[in-house]
Amino acid sequence: MFSFARLALFSAAAFTAVSALPIDLPVSLPVVGSSIDLPAPVDGVADTALSVAGGVVGTVTGVVGSLDLPVRRDIVGVASILSDATVALAPATNLLKFVTAQNATVEALTAPVEEIKTILTGTVTSLKALVGQDASVILATVDGTAQLTVAELAPIVAALMTIVFHALGAVLTVVGSTADSAVTTLLSAVGSIVGELLTVVVSLVGGILATLLPLISSLIPFILNLNASQVISLLGL
Q1: Would 45 be classed as within a structural domain?
Q2: Between vectors from CA 72 to CA 161 and to CA 198, what angle results, nearest 5°?
Q3: Span 25-74, pLDDT tens digits
Q4: Which of 50, 107, 113, 146 is at a distance of 20 to 30 A from 61, taking alpha carbons?
């Protein structure tokens, strides 16, 4: 279990990096799916859709392959479901990464947050449909033609968690200790769904937590600040 001293070190590093961003956005956030011009992401903070700390993105790319290539979906396992979800989450999560003190309101945040919740909820439903399936299905590669190891699947899980919690963490950094309770509640609802998703993944893929935890260590401050209790319990934080 993490001590308060270690949590302080994690929090200081993560929140300092995000809070250093000079970002200029309109008072209201664009509608998800609309055509917008966003500032260029800042290294280490506004990551691309599949970017994860510690070089995970390279592993994900190697496992998933080019998303532009046609893939077989005769067999749909965890990797395919999570990879599709990670790509689908990119527009809404990117909006949250560029909030400012002026537009970090319930009114402005509700649309992208609801989009994230909808995608995650659908992902949980798809994962639950795998319960009882053979390991060859559950651990199938994205194209369904081979089987992944647990070590190969963990970075794909980490990629989804990273894109979500980096976005939520960006908002938390902006609103700080003066956060409107309604904003915190809005964000916490996303953390709860991620907890449900992770619970299903753990039930499907035994032993994945030991491989997953080092890949998501940078997310721990955000998880704790959101009080994502189910994730905290599963990770033993």
Answers
A1: no
A2: 20
A3: 444 555 544 444 434 443 443 343 343 333 443 444 344 444 454 455 67
A4: 113
